[in-house]
Amino acid sequence: MTYPLLTNCPVCSKALKITKLHCNHCQTTIENEFEVSRLAALGQEQLHFIEIFLKCRGNIKEVEKELGISYPTVRGKLDEIISTLGYSTQKKPEIDKSKIVTMLEKGEITAEKAIQLLKEGE
């Protein structure tokens, strides 16, 4: 019987390091520190969701139908997975283009600064 790869210590919840690999065929054992993919940190339910998401080619409407869940639930699961993988789920704040134009017209910012602010909002 095989068990899923543990990535966190069941006692203290800190990250585990893989230090030993073994071949059951020839009995070779290799000891060292090995890296695992970020995806290894995902739970079984999250991996199942990712499989469905990929099968549906990222179409959230199809994921909704396949799993029988709502759009906000799909987005919530995606945000949870993104966060587990170590990425931020916060969107960049939207730039108010009319405010930038107004500031430029009033001479509060230079044309170069206005261009820079507009590019940051893209």
Automatic annotation (TrEMBL):
It comes from the Bacteria. Residues 9-39, 42-87 form the DUF2089 domain. It holds the Pfam family DUF2089. This is DUF2089 domain-containing protein. It comes from Gottfriedia luciferensis.
